[in-house]
Specification:
46% helix; homodimer; 322 residues; six-stranded mixed beta sheet; four-stranded parallel beta sheet; alpha/beta; globular; Rossmann fold; 10 strands
């Protein structure tokens, strides 16, 4: 099993603190009024790369030793992780290669390039791009930085829970948008260490929900449908190590309707004037769907990122709900 | 002349600090790359009411003494000031009456109501609503809280400059979206006290620019045209006291094209995924228009608010520039 302790997360926080922003924790009156929960947002979309992923990436970078810094790193991702690694590598004074599949749109490719990473475009999907990245790691000695399985990544992502609970210690529940599960595990480990009573829930959309069956049946199951989704950051098949770890510390997985998630994007724009990406909006969706577990509770929503395409955002904001 | 000193602003900061957010100061690589300046954003749109106005309002509230707290306050404004006073009054444990003209749209009226203020709708324009507010002040003993002429308001707004310069002390220039001029004067007084070399520029749109002639000719002149503008927070005629004060501490007034201002809204949404109101976007507009004074300089942009209507925002984001 992947080994990550609260001590790892505490040490990660000390390492990465100079490089990350202590993002605002904001009370939402409109969302609280609507849902009957006391709702708070942790605005990690305000991190310099527009997403919390800088926490895990930076912890990996600061954990590199001597020779590793010289040889550099390699990562695979079509999303925020590649930007985070590229950005973190520059701050650490090392070099990064980022592998993306051919389907990756130009703006996501530019995300890595603008921080000076070398871009390798390879294969039809993430799995192939990841294989290529491992190959580059073997051939060049670069360290492979996994987006969610690396203990350093998980520990780094967990720092967001420390930051929130030191600011407000009495949350009943934390809602965690969940893709690979690095954030989910890191947050659960840190939160439970600070308050064993707190509930930690992973969120996926009904358009890509491999966590639901895998978690409930305690074995990897990627047989669910994978449909187009506004929460692109959460999309895709998962792997066993993070599920295994989550089973030790996470309370449950909630599946949020695609439509309620889109409504969450519009709600945040209309009520708070925040642009958030679909992954983050699953927190709003889960609250709108009135899960019994959240009623009357103090709920912390992790607003994980804001990297949403402007056209897509405006289309969603022009939709009609209710 | 209105009397506001650096000491007043320092004291205001101590008074209001428990009630305001220390908002993020963010470096913008895309804007710096485009403009050839080193551009930073102070995200005061993240204050709880979505605008910096809470600073001045809260300083007024915390400066109330004994009997004044019992009698309550009254304000006039169709914009962020009324929300700020309503919100601040609640925190102070006093009551507020807010006067708005009949033209005030429902969502702006709700802004004051949701924090428990009493709403008085009166007259065709701001001037009439203000007269009504003064009348209420006389009749009820409530203290009138002016949106930009009160020394407490100016001192409160100036705290944003202290906050920025304590975080990064070497700015060459500050861009200040300017309506009545309370923020402009407060920022200039604080910034010059911390660094006499720093330049402070007030920004208006070409659709409502009474500051330009008034400042340059050193006498009040509201004869400019007042046209529809996306920067509604800056719109309208001005008064002499703030101009008189600005002449002692402000370096210049820049007039920004309405079109470049709209482009600024779109730019922030596209590059940073921030929703900002038109007033704030004048900072981007001024940079895009390549003022000689800003070239190669370290420029602080005050992002004063994010309270923009979602329909209007999406319309602007769908426009084509260049």
């Amino acid at each position: 099993m992947i080994q990550v302790s609260m001590k790892d997360i505490v040490e990660a926080y000390a390492l990465i603190q100079p490089y990350i922003m202590k993002t605002p924790l904001i009370y939402s009156k409109p969302t609280s009024d609507r849902t009957g929960s006391e709702v708070w947002f942790k605005m990690d979309n305000l991190q310099s790369i527009g997403a919390y992923k800088i926490r895990g990436a930076m912890n990996n970078m600061m954990s590199l030793r001597g020779e590793e810094v010289k040889k550099g790193v390699v990562a695979a991702s079509a999303g925020n992780h590649s930007q985070a690694v590229a950005y973190g590598a520059r701050l650490r004074g090392t070099s990064a290669v980022v592998c993306v599949p051919e389907s990756t749109p130009m703006n996501k490719r530019e995300g890595a390039l603008k921080y000076g990473a070398e871009l390798v475009v390879y294969g039809p999907n993430y799995e192939e791009a990841e294989k290529k990245a491992y190959e580059i790691a073997r051939e060049t000695g670069r360290k492979f930085i996994h987006a969610y399985e690396s203990p350093e990544t998980i520990a780094g992502q967990g720092t967001v829970a420390i930051e929130c609970l030191l600011e407000k210690g009495d949350f009943d529940a934390i809602l965690v948008p969940t893709g690979g599960g690095g954030l989910l595990c890191g947050v659960a480990i840190a939160a439970k260490a600070m308050n064993p009573e707190i509930k930690v829930y992973g969120l996926q959309t009904n358009t890509s929900a491999p966590w639901l069956k895998s978690f409930h049946e305690k074995r990897l199951d990627n047989s669910c449908p994978f449909l187009p989704t506004c929460a692109d950051g959460l999309e895709g098949a998962i792997t066993w190590p993070n599920v295994e770890l989550a089973l030790t510390c996470v309370d449950d997985i909630f599946v949020v309707d695609e439509r309620t998630t889109r409504e969450g994007i519009q709600w945040m724009a209309s009520k708070h004037h925040f642009m958030i990406e679909g992954a983050s909006a699953t927190c709003l969706g889960a609250l709108f769907e009135e899960h019994e577990e959240l009623k009357g509770k103090k709920v912390l929503c992790l607003i994980t990122g804001g990297n949403i395409d402007l056209d897509k955002f405006c289309n969603i904001c022009e939709e009609t709900y209710e």
